[in-house]
Amino acid sequence: MPDNEWLAAAFAEHRDHLRGVAYRLLGSMTDADDAVQDTWLRLTGTDTSEVENLGGWLTTVVARVSLNMLRSRRRHPEEPVGDSWPPPVEAAGNGATAPPGAGAAAPLGDPEGEAVLADSVGLALLVVLDKLTPAERLAFVLHDMFAMPFDEVGDVLGRSTDATRQLASRARRRVRGAPSPDHAGLAQQREVAAAFLTASRGGDFSALVALLDSDVTLTADAAAAPSGHPATLHGADAVARGAVLASGRAGESRLALVDGSVGIVFAPAGHLRVVLAFTVSQARRITAIDVIADPERLRELHLALLPDDPGPAAA
Q: What is the DSSP string of the chain?
């Protein structure tokens, strides 16, 4: 077998593991796939003849790539671009998702596999991990979730073994001390948001009305309204009509965690433009939609891309 074919076959054996590491570190399927692709490019440009443990080497590389992406998010949060914002009525129908720095919003490769991966991590854990610093997150994920020795984690971070151990310990305390997210509530939110996005894409007015509380209120900040002033829509019919009118935009939209709750983000070509934050009742009806397009508000949000399919967790 030629060297390049052997290298491709060897990389394929580790791809799922690398994707799992990257997803837990980045909380985004798109970013995880980008990190894995970058790892492959680095592998093809490196002399691996003296690499004794290819799996360990690849894990280290994908972790370093992910760490750089996490740090870049903190330094350069993606700002919305364009000279106008989608009107609030249209935004009601825009399910969307690419988090800051996620690159072009593209169709996910394997929805079923992505749903399984997301559920194996757990929405609740993603919420908690998002509160950690990049170094804490990497130390916790690599050591506590993937059993990587502290000296190897330290090599990735460029820190001593003792300092890395302290980072992981601090992260562990923050994870344990964080308020416990409502697992059932997150699964329910995800199911409702996914149904809203599907109905929006299909322009299904009846399905949208069925998902909305009769007294639902949609509020849009000044940046989201053509008038430049905050706008409000009341009632299931009005909000559903807006979603139907925006069915074209919904095709570029994805589900995401929005500050710990499931919502929708619109980020064409990777530029974050609009976020829809939902309030979902116990009766599984959307009672409020907050349309966020103001750059300052967008920068303050914590976002993580999710697959559209609710998967087993929502069953």
A: --HHHHHHHHHHHHHHHHHHHHHHHHS-HHHHHHHHHHHHHHHHTS--TT-S-HHHHHHHHHHHHHHHHHHHHHHSPPPP-SS----HHHHTT----PPTT--S----S-HHHHHHHHHHH-HHHHHHHTTS-HHHHHHIIIIIIT---HHHHHHHHT--HHHHHHHHHHHHHHHHHSPPP-HHHHHHHHHHHHHHHHHHHHT-HHHHHHHEEEEEEEEE-GGGSTTSS-EEEESHHHHHHHHHHTHHHHTTEEEEEETTEEEEEE-GGG---EEEEEEE-TTS-EEEEEEE--HHHHHH--EEE--SS--GGG-
Half-sphere exposure of residue 186: CA atoms within 13 angstroms, side-chain side: 24
Read off φ and ψ for residue 50, nearest 5 degrees. Answer: -105, 10
What is the chain's length? 315
One-letter amino acid of 29? M
The two three-digit tokens of residue 233, written as one number: 């829509």
Highest mean pLDDT among 25-34, 106-115, 133-142, 303-312 belongs to 133-142
Domains, the chain: 3-78+131-177 (1.20.140.160), 88-121+181-314 (3.10.450.50)
End-to-end CA distance of the chain: 45
Distance CA 128, CA 154 (A): 22
Tell me the whole-structure pTM to 2 decimals.
Answer: 0.52
| Tens-place pLDDT, residues 177-211 | 655 555 557 788 889 999 999 999 999 999 999 99
What are the two backbone dihedrals, phi and then psi, of residue 302, each rounded to the nearest 5 degrees?
-105, 120
CA dist., res. 267 & res. 258, Å (int): 14
